Queue: 2 jobs
Job 1
Amino acid sequence: MEVLSLKEELVSFRGIKEGIYIFIKKGDFKNIKKELQEKLIEYKDFYNGASILGIKSENLREEEIKELLHLIEDKFELYIEENGLPSYLEEEHYNIEINEGMTRFYNTTIRSGQIIEYNGNIVIIGDVNPGALVRATGNIVILGKLRGVAHAGIDGNKNTYVAAYELQPTQLRIGDIIARKPDEGFAMSNMPEVAKVYKGEVLIQPYLAKKQ
Amino acid sequence: MGKAIVITSGKGGVGKTTATANIGTGLAMLGYKVVVVDTDIGLRNLDVVMGLENRIVYDIVDVVEKNCRLKQGLIRDKRFQGLFLLPAAQTKDKTAVKPEQMLELVNELKEEFDYIIIDSPAGIEQGFQNSIAGADEAYIVTTPEISAVRDADRVIGLLEAKGMTNPKVIVNRIRLDMVKRGNMMNVEDIIDILAVDLLGVVPDDEAIVISTNKGEPVVSEENPMSSKAFRNICRRITGEEVELLDLEDGEGKFTKLIKLLFS
């Protein structure tokens, strides 16, 4: 009996009105490269002479994408458009985890009516009170209570997170996703928590996954 | 050189004017020379609460515009020596006085008085900016309601931005029975949010309404709980360490005794 392969495809060719681009799912670079080569060989005739807009990937680094583009151009003589991917596809370019970068520290309580904004990460040693707004392109960490509104990844980066000693925000925004405090019946946790995006929704977890 | 204290809240109707009148009177009862200043131009109330409305000839706008001398603008209290009122103008609006003029006025008053208690209008606009212009310290009045606490928080933020970093909070109109039933914010919750020092807690008290209507601040009466609370606040202002008032004291004890006897 033949076993059906249920292996998910890592590489796919996608057509949009501007042309064709290659979409690559999260996976091991070696496998991706192998699969891409196989596909290109298989459909060589079909794509012959076509131009490729570029590569959109879920987790590849820039060098890796460059390497693949070179491979396509040199080995398979496909033409890569100079303009690259249309800008609306580029949006999720910050798929790199925000674990480093510029950080601003605040050692005070952020009160109602106050807005804090920073191009980078924000660390607050103090509380964020209701009516206050904290906005960062990166992560937000609060060593205190978050009762106001926090917006991490204001330029659209959904890999950012918001962490607080007590996470009771009026509203949480990560990237373009907005979550609000339930009107009633929400669980209180007595430990620091982290809010991040999981499958398009804001998920709140204990600061360490093992602590429950 | 005296000390200028602004009484403010952001939200209206929480008891700024009542607190100003009582703190001013209370400090005067302790023997200090005190002036209470009403900066709520256009909506003056402090004179009514102090029972001095019919004595007004000049007001704060006349004083800053130099239509009269400072001494002429000050109204001596009808009962307590050493207590004066500088009333607001009723026919002008908040723009009639500028922050620089307030600063000058307060500095002038500081030479004459031990305490200058400034009653701030509700809101955070020019009237508020005027009221804090010359103040050395700020006391925030709030009630145990989320809206009042929220506004207090906003005001504390604005004060901090002006360099007044250590405001103190007066929690007004607290009802112990409601707090016990969990239907009202308690003082700890409020202080937890505002993260500033507590100056005092004043219970919700009928005596306040009666005294306000009479034009005699409650602090001058012996028995009401609110009066005791304000007297304690005044002693704390002068630097004395006074424990927080046990709100169950007084009438509570008697009912407790009865309950004990019949249980």
Note: DSSP finds four helices and 15 strands in chain A.
Job 2
Amino acid sequence: MTLDAKIPSGPIEQAWAKACFDMKLVNPANKRKHSLIVVGSGLAGGSAAASLGELGYNVKCFCFQDSPRRAHSIAAQGGINAAKNYPNDGESVYRLFYDTVKGGDFRAREANVYRLAEVSGKIIDQCVAQGVPFAREYGGSLSNRSFGGAQVSRTFYARGQTGQQLLLGAYQALERQVQAGSVTMIPRHEMLDLIVIDGRARGIVARDLVNGKLSVHIADAVILATGGYGNAYYLSTNAKGSNATAIWRAYKRGALFANPCFTQIHPTCIPVSGDYQSKLTLMSESLRNDGRIWVPKKKGDPRPPNQIPEEERDYYLERRYPSFGNLVPRDVASRNAKALCDEGYGVGKTGLGVYLDFSEAINRLGEKTVRERYGNLFDMYQRITDEDPYKVPMRIYPAIHYTMGGLWVDYELQSTIPGLFVLGEANFSDHGANRLGASALMQGLSDGYFVIPYTVGNYLATNKFPKVEESNAEVQSSVAVVKQKIDKLLSIKGKRTVDSFHRELGKILWDYCGMARTAQGLETAIGKIRALREEYWKNVTVAGTGDDLNESLEKAGRVADYFELAELICIDARDRNESCGGHFREEYQTPDGEAQRDDEHYSYVAAWGYKGPDAPPELTKEPLEFHYVHPSQRSYK
Amino acid sequence: MKLTLKIWRQKNSNEQGAFVRYPVDDVDPEMSILECLDVLNESLILKGEAPVAFEHDCREGICGSCGFVINGVAHGPERATTACQLTMRHFKQGDELTLEPWRAKAFPIVKDLVVDRRAFDRIIQAGGYVSVSTGQAPEANGILIGKEAADCSMDAAACIGCGACVAACPNASAALFTGAKITHLGSLPQGDVEHQRRALAMVAQMNAEIFGSCTNIGECTGACPKEIPLEVIAKMNRDYVCASFNRRDDLPAPVPPGASLATGA
């Protein structure tokens, strides 16, 4: 198989305009004759469903929660990047493009990233017009702050709840279309299979989570915006319900899965406190604007932080990376924290933590200003840890947060299955091997508001859509596959709960395919995952029945998919014999411990194809070409 | 520590429910009450009993999924705290906690502690938005907004739609929720344009659902995990009264409750 990314020819500055002009249009009167399915209602899915509804398409939007407003985009805290250059500090579309390609450690596709930077300004315009209450200066203009991996202030924010406010903007636009009758919202439904007919995506099989009924939904195109797969690791900053099932079923129906090993570990999360822990809570990267990260210079120093004098503290990021200091990108900050904790400098009961200290900022700015900037984050920290971060430094440790990998898409966001489009975190396209802070919200909204409305039209205008009956053999086979799996999970009635398996799987992934990986460790992990998966299908117990609200059953299906996905993550990590961004292979590092890329052999997107339950996945490479930002050793020193 | 959870169990909306007592050992003070339910559910599953259904997702207090009444108080005893953020250190050895779902006619019980809050979505559908389509936006700094107005809007926009206000209100009124959206949008020039139409449409939908009326008791704001101020209700009432003088006849008709626009297949 060869992959055509459909990157427009000519200068990158004109690529998107050219692509838009070259795309075929659907005339306004014909739009209502086309039906579209959007799965997921977060920033990407919500904005896509709303925008497509506004254009006049017939849209069905699905989410597994009780309301589209619950999607996990809502938990994004710090902000959204845009190349507005309001602070007059040297920002431009080109710089945002450059920083994103470099931040991704030269493993992203240039043309996609350029488009992202290009439309970023329009996203802010759109959100302001929707009534998103971004932070403002006294003069009434929009306020900006800085984020990791950038030396300009390009981040727009709404207190520590930027994701919430942007999502509510998209949700309200979506509900407006529900009122207008162009979008049908179908909550509490989970997509369990993709229907592919004559090689094209034509619908989904969904399960009503309240009564267990399976239903078939046919459309002219299917848009997946179902988020990332970080929950494969069990403990992550993702919501409990976030899952990979939709993209995984699409993979098994023929969509290629790109760069699964590119997972992002966020440096500032509240450390694990016990075995019962169900998830990890993020403390926004924006805190690194004013917080200083340090560990005691003495190993295992038992003194409380306030009694450790200034000269006995190691502000290691400021020491090692003087030009970016505490605002180095996430992969760099995470690795440094892990390295110091591994050497015995960690703090807290478990020794798995470093300090994030605001005392200097409080002295400089006053507690009131700090409270205004980060008040809700400080409150959240205090509620969880019972410690007051205005008085005692926060303890933080890295945790799985975001997945750069995802279904392979071309420039039009179409997967290798024609008619299946993938948006937001669910695709792989824009962040390379490491995502910069405040760029996920930008990408989700760029895909949903400004890219898919054009590209899906091109697909609809250039294809014919014969009517599909529910009795169609492909439809029935999809339904049968789903039924069979549900029945199987309910019938095992073993001795272990779904969560106990998930926890164990997550531990394997974290230990062998987390912040540091080795070829040997990955081999071990693959063996362990296979053995555990085998036990799962013999010994799992799922409570209840298939015909009512049954979270145990929902989780069982998702965890079954995580087993297969986890193996692919490890295979991809083993296959990529280099370090880049969040993928750090211990064998490949510079003398001072930074990631060592191998551009000669690995400057490609690794796209994996499903070949059957017992066959190894097949690798197809999309070579990456850099015409504008020339790959160099990433340095933040 | 050890404590007892007395939980409302109800198989579905048609069947009768009842309280069931469950002793839980090994409660760690650091765990959240949802994690305490996780521990209980793991043991129930291994015993072959049905686990307790409860709504949850982000578990960091922002998605608005979780919430139930704990010892008579929505989201439990801590101020400005959702159930997922309520740690067990606020309880002590031997305590008995009564957990029951939001009790409101407009929020029918789905199962155990899970209720159907689609009435909230229908109120937003009626007018909780700015009528601007993708692509129509002017330059973001083209309309300046004073910091005070932006802050006031943000205070109201912090609502997470959890439903605690309705559960806490003796009348089961949705005035705080509706007022919060009216204040969020109405405080900004972008949302001011259609504030009258919005107030009429949203209040009409709120009245069409089976929510009670607001009698200014204030339990709602006390229970609100985001501390939405009571003033938002005053703002809603003012907008509504002003709008009533200019009543328009092109408003969308309220959707009857139950006959949801969101038809679940």
Note: Residues 260-265 of chain B have pLDDT under 50 and may be disordered.
